[in-house]
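Quick start: read one record
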Amino acid sequence: MGKITKRAALVLAITIFALLFSCGQKSSEGPQKAATKEDAKVQEKEVKEKEEPVREEEKEEYKKRIETELKKLDEKIKELKIKADKTGEETKAEIEKELKELREKEKKAQKKLEKLESASEKAWKDLKSGIEAALDDLEKSYRSALSHFKEKS
């Protein structure tokens, strides 16, 4: 009985050691498979962005595109201001408040664009997504102000 107990203890110890050792190993399967096609596209894009350095031409094109979008939104905001000036005082006051918020969001987007020019590659990629979000927010706020204006006029 002593031999069986020693043998069982040895087998158990080897099994535990093997399990502990294998748990610490990284899988050679590579990245986990995506659950959906959309997940796969997102993963592929992320991997590609990590691998590829950002070209100066790409940065310049992106900067010009964002500047153009900001200028268009600025013009739209100016037009909205002109329309607001032609409305009644109560409506004008409400629209002026929204216009002020729009201008603040526009300034934030502009500052992010300025930071983009001197950013490192990793920071550039992070700022790029931040600028996209800021522009989306600015556009939504503009549409909200415009719809509010249409309701009041």
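DSSP finds five helices and no strands in the chain.
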